[in-house]
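Quick note —
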Amino acid sequence: MLSVIMATRNRDRLLRDVLEAFCRLQQPSSGWQLIIVDNDSTDDTTQVIASFANRLPLQTVHERELGKSRALNHGLGLVKGDLTVFTDDDIFPCTEWLVKLKEAADSQPGYSMFGGPIMARWEAPPPYWIRWVHEAPVYGLTNPSLEDGPTDPWELFGGNMAIRASVFHSGIRFLTSMGPRGSNYPIGGETELLMRLARQGHKAWHVKGALVEHLVQKEHLNQTWVMRRALRAGRGSYRIQNMQNNKVHTPLYLLRVLLKAGFDMTKAGVSFRQEALFRSRWRLNIARGQATEARIWSRQTGKTVPIKLWESLAVAVRVEDFGEGGVARIKLAVHPGQETKRIFVHFIPVTPNPLCRIFIGDHEVRDPASAETSCFISAEDMAMLKMASYIVRVGAERIDGIHVWERNVLTRE
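Predicted structure written out below.
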């Protein structure tokens, strides 16, 4: 069975057209369900969804707190199938969409993440400058040259992706600090999830026949909107780099990028080269978004959760609360000749409680000789961490095998 999850907010007219397209889908032999999460709409969304109750295998829920990632997480609690398909309320699928995704999942048991092509459906004729736009971060369009087969996780997009339901059974969820939420937010919630899963060993597969179209609304065909999108993309890329332990840009580096992009934009403006001006504006806004996120992270870092820290000769674990999530930082004793390749950390509730999930971080270390790493903790998980007692289990993959340390930690204030 397939479970399709869609979050929507205040798009009643567009949603009606999208659901009409869903009515034309070929039915997977194993059956399917459509979970629509209404993210506190104030228009006629509820009535539109109700009008399709006899035509689609619908289940509707309401999420009062704004945020696409929060709405998707709500929907994950209702999944009944073995393959969870994610889409958006402005996506028009081809008739074979679900069938093709199901075929790929059945024929590729070694893969956990699947995605298909996302092409543009222009609401109005696109302007001449659209060829200068980076279509992936701006309009969520995929690379049209991709064929069936293994692919990188960043080639999958939230409008057309599927993940095996078993992945979510361990408590993995979208980060609510990323994705659409009001007017000022870092984009890339789906990308962050996919990259996190890839670090845990899950692999991605491209399904060329699972085609959908993304409606590009006419109000999104202006350069002001595109440049605002660049700001959000910059914020999202910086946050994902921080979470992955990749080398992140320092304030000095970002200042140089900002100055160079500003200089290039001025030079292009003086020479009246429109394409060069557009591209330099894009780079400038990406850098501005990264600088904005860098300031946010620098302000947040250091606000430590009031827990009893674990510090011994072998292991040190520290948790920092960022307000919209946190980071668990792990440091192991260095053993000459025994370089650490990977570190994992589990937070396991001492008292069994279905509301307290197991938090898992699994990361390659930044420097094998230092044996240090960190893993991101979502805002919801941070809230639960501060309410209960946990067993902290730390493991390290070294040349001579896996080493594990474990200790009970009281995380209540």
